[in-house]
Amino acid sequence: MLTGPTYGDLLSQNANAYHPMRQREHNGGNLCFAFACRWAREILSADIWMKWSLKQTSAQRIGKILLDLPEVTKQHRDYQNQLDSDAHNVRQLQFSRHSAQLNRRIDSEEFEPGKDPDSLKINAITRGRFFDNGAWLTPTESKLALAFNLHLAGVGHWDLTPNSLPGLVTSFTDILSRVAKQTAYLLFFAEMNTTRAHAVGIYRSHGMAWQDWYVFDPNHGEFKYNSYTYGHAALLAIATQLGMDSVRLMQVSPHTSKVLEV
User: Phi, psi at residue 168, to the nearest 5°?
Assistant: First the structure.
């Protein structure tokens, strides 16, 4: 029986280097954020050849990441447990706020909308630190990044139109215009008002005349593209496949004690 190209095929067809993830290692565990953090740490530590190209190959990088699978799994488990605790705390605060509204009408008489103590606590859990560019970083996300000795900083937030290719093209043109050379980033895809989410890594090399674009999708592996056009097309394929309606771009840097975390 003939079948069409798979999602992984679409990502790899324009790549001049590609190394797959062994999906059986992490299927069903939703380890994408932990794997993406581990990948970012690895690519930021890679030696650079002639000040523009990474010496480490995709196969070497993925191999080292998979050797750390027990640590990745542990950090993900801690992250998931904290997410469950966050969700429980939010439900309790929502109930407390609802009770206060019924008994004291707090929004109309005591506080501005969204400024009552319970709403502020909910916001601290679900949004945490806000950036001027519209991105946010929750304490739980920051904690997982710190477990991999990484610091995250928001670069922007975009509402996506998964069923509109022109809309996605516009969004990812803007996103990639903010990706600096020799810098790692994470894309946090999400479907608003659900728990669906996915994390993807991006790295742009330091070439003067041209740059390589590395895209890491934990569901499929690392893809190296030798042009902006191919990197852009890969992210469009990922966004279309995921069908999620929101994405945050977070810059990744090695953590130092001078960085104040949320």
Answer: -65, -40
d(CA 115, CA 119): 6
The alpha carbon of 131 is separated from its chain's Cα centroid by a whole number of angstroms, namely 16
Instruction: Say if CB 154 and CB 248 are below 8 A apart.
Output: yes
Distance CA(191)–CA(73), nearest Å, equals 24
For the whole model, what pTM was predicted? 0.85
Distance CA 159, CA 190 (A): 10
**Residue indicated by tokens 């030696």:** 47
63-101 residue pLDDT tens: 999 999 999 999 999 999 999 999 999 888 888 777 766
Instruction: Please compute the mean of the pLDDT values over residues 171-175 and round it to a whole number.
Output: 95
Burial-class residue 184 by CB neighbours within 10 Å (0-12, 13-18, 19+).
buried
Long-range contacts of the stretch 214-219 (C-beta < 8 A, 24+) = 214/43, 214/54, 214/58, 215/11, 216/36, 216/39, 216/43, 217/11, 218/21, 218/26, 218/31, 218/32, 218/35, 218/36, 218/39, 219/21, 219/23, 219/32
| Residue 7 in this model has a pLDDT that exceeds 80 | no
Q: In order of start, what are the domains of the chain with their CATH numbers?
A: 8-254 (3.90.70.20)
CB contact set of 136 (below 8 Å; sequence gap of 6+): 127, 128, 129, 130, 154, 157, 248
Q: Do the Cβ atoms of 218 and 116 come closer than 8 Å?
A: no
**pLDDT score for 6:** 61
Under the banding of pLDDT at 50, 70 and 90, the label for residue 157 is very high
Contact yes or no for 183/122 (Cβ under 8 A): no
How much is the pLDDT for 4?
42
